């Protein structure tokens, strides 16, 4: 199945609300677990001067998990959708999470040099971000500009199925009881996603071949490593 890009930003109130209300806890927790596992593997620990970016953070689910897991580390969620960050800020206002903040930044603008974020990250994570980019090399370009030397990366995203029929089958298997708007968006995301081979080539072309990409299950791949 050929790739069919979807809109880069979620800005429709109904879309944002459905996404914010959905339970993505299993996938969200896997990002944190993968980061924990990699830190243990390389023998690295965090200190209070470290900075973690959650790219295309949406309503902040993963940003919150990371901030709670490492309460002494500063965490910044970055997204280009004001509506998504409004949802994240609403949740943040109800909790005491002093080490978490959000920045409204269009990630493409970082890659193109139109926006210069003054800080660099020791760790960059993302979940289901890459497939939203019409030009994926802008995603990788932004990450290269935002990461310090020896920046740790953990990125997780959907794998594009081999056919539209398979995409529909996966949609019904995993979201059969979800609202129609969420099912529609999930199906569109599957069609907009990349294969593991495509991502591996992107990393090589972007000068990030030190990062490893591997398939986790029928839905997801992960990219992990240090630059």
From TrEMBL:
This is Methylase involved in ubiquinone/menaquinone biosynthesis. It comes from the Bacteria. Residues 54-146 form the Methyltransferase type domain. It comes from Prochlorococcus marinus (strain NATL1A). GO terms for molecular function: methyltransferase activity. One of its GO terms (biological process) is methylation. Keywords: Methyltransferase, Transferase, Ubiquinone. Gene3D superfamilies: Vaccinia Virus protein VP39.
């Amino acid at each position: 199945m050929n790739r069919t890009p979807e809109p880069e930003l979620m800005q429709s109130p109904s879309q944002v609300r459905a996404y914010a209300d959905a339970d993505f806890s299993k996938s969200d927790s896997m990002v944190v677990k993968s980061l924990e596992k990699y830190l243990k593997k390389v023998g690295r620990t965090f200190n209070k001067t470290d900075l973690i970016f959650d790219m295309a953070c949406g309503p902040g689910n993963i940003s919150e998990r990371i901030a709670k897991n490492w309460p002494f580390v500063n965490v910044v969620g970055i997204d280009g959708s004001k509506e998504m960050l409004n949802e994240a800020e609403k949740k943040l206002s109800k909790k005491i999470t002093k080490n978490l903040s959000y920045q409204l930044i269009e990630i493409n603008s970082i890659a193109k040099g139109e926006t210069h974020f003054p800080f660099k990250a020791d760790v960059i994570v993302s979940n289901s971000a890459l497939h939203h980019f019409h030009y994926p090399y802008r995603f990788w370009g932004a990450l290269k500009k935002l990461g310090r030397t020896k920046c740790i990366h953990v990125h997780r995203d959907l794998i594009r199925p081999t056919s539209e029929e398979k995409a529909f089958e996966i949609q019904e298997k995993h979201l059969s009881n979800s609202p129609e708007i969420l099912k529609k968006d999930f199906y569109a995301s599957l069609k907009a996603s990349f294969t593991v081979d495509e991502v591996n080539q992107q990393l090589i072309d972007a000068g990030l071949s030190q990062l490893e990409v591997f398939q986790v299950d029928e839905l997801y791949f992960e990219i992990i490593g240090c630059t």
